[in-house]
Design brief:
Distance between the termini: 26 Å
Number of domains: 2
Low-confidence stretches: none
CATH superfamily of the largest domain: lambda repressor-like DNA-binding domains
Structural class: mainly alpha
Helix content: 55-70%
CATH topology of the largest domain: 434 Repressor (Amino-terminal Domain)
Shape: globular
Number of strands: 0
CATH architecture of the largest domain: Orthogonal Bundle
Length: 116
C-alpha cells in the first residue's frame, strides 16, 4: 500500500518518534551516535526519515534510550501530546537554553492520559 501525497512516510514517522525519545533522554544526536557506534549523520538521517533503521539498530537505539522498540515504531496518529512534544523539541533545537523549563513541560505533558 502506498502513502498519500504529502503524507509522511513510515520512516519519517518513526524518525519523529526517535527524535522525541532521544530528546526525552536528553541526548544530542552526537551522543546517541557515540553510544551506538555510528556517525551522527546516521542518526540525523534516521530522524529525518531519509534512512530506515534496521531491526538491529532499532533494538540498540531503544536500549540506549530506555524505551521499547515498539514505542518507536507504533502510532500512526499524533495525539495532542505528541504534537506538543514535537513543537517543544523543535523549539529546543533552536534555543537550547530553554532545556530546563521544556523538560518540566514535557514531563507534565507525558504524565497526562492520551487524548482520544
Amino acid at each position: 500500500m502506498t502513502e498519500g501525497a504529502g503524507a509522511p512516510t513510515i520512516d519519517a514517522q518513526v524518525g519523529e518518534r526517535l527524535r522525541a525519545a532521544r530528546l526525552r533522554a536528553v541526548l544530542t544526536q552526537g551522543e546517541l551516535a557515540s553510544a551506538l557506534g555510528v556517525d551522527r549523520s546516521t542518526v540525523a538521517k534516521w530522524e529525518s526519515g531519509e534512512r530506515a533503521m534496521t531491526v538491529a539498530a532499532l533494538t540498540r537505539v531503544a536500549h540506549v534510550l530506555g524505551v521499547t522498540p515498539t514505542s518507536i515504531l507504533e502510532g500512526s496518529r499524533r495525539s495532542a501530546q505528541q504534537q506538543a512534544v514535537l513543537l517543544l523539541t523543535s523549539t529546543l533545537e533552536q534555543r537550547p537554553d530553554l532545556l530546563p523549563p521544556m523538560l518540566a513541560t514535557l514531563e507534565e505533558l507525558l504524565a497526562r492520559p492520551p487524548s482520544p
